Amino acid sequence: MERFDEDCTIVSDGKQAILEFASNNQFQKDTIQPKPNRKNYASQNGNNLGEVNQMHQEFKQMIKHYHGVSIRHLQHYLDWLVFRKQMKYQIRAEARKTKAYMLAMKGTVSFVTKDICSFELPIDVFTLYQN
Predict the structure, then answer these.
(1) What is the DSSP letter of 91?
(2) Longest Cα pair distance anywhere in the chain, in angstroms?
């Protein structure tokens, strides 16, 4: 399973299919046992399904916004959702647009403004501005 880390832990509510999947792929399992007198269900390791349910809800909202998704591009939608969540939790609201732009351009633009003066240009810029 190339999409999972070797030390992956599957957090679940103990459904047989999920436990079987984790066992078949030698993943660690962390099962949350529901208790009738508690509202917040958590495992012994402190994991809870609230975060998973929240992510699922946000993904459903995103799908609704885009009027459905293409299976072909599903990974890109998931990547976009994770990127948005990371931006929300790690960067102040005022700085998000700039940071998102800089992260997007990182792989596209291989130089910064201060480096432009050191590039060799196909024309002599000084003669253009002498008049």
Answers:
(1) S
(2) 84
Asked whether the CA dihedral 85, 89, 95, 100 is positive or negative, the reply is negative
DSSP tag of 89: H
N- to C-terminal Cα distance for the chain?
Answer: 66
Residue tagged 């809870």 (tokens): 48
pLDDT in tens, 23-51: 998 898 888 877 777 666 778 888 887 87
At 10, list the tokens: 């599957």
Do residues 26 and 18 lie in contact, with contact meaning Cβ atoms separated by under 8 Å? no
Q: b or e along 39-62 (b: 16 or more beta carbons within 10 Å of the residue's beta carbon)?
A: eeebbeeebebeeeeeeeeeeeee
Strand positions, DSSP E, the chain: 9-12, 28-31
Confidence of residue 107 (pLDDT cuts 50, 70, 90): low
Nearest CA to 75 out of 59, 53, 57 is that of 59
Distance CA 123, CA 121 (A): 5
- pLDDT value at residue 20: 92
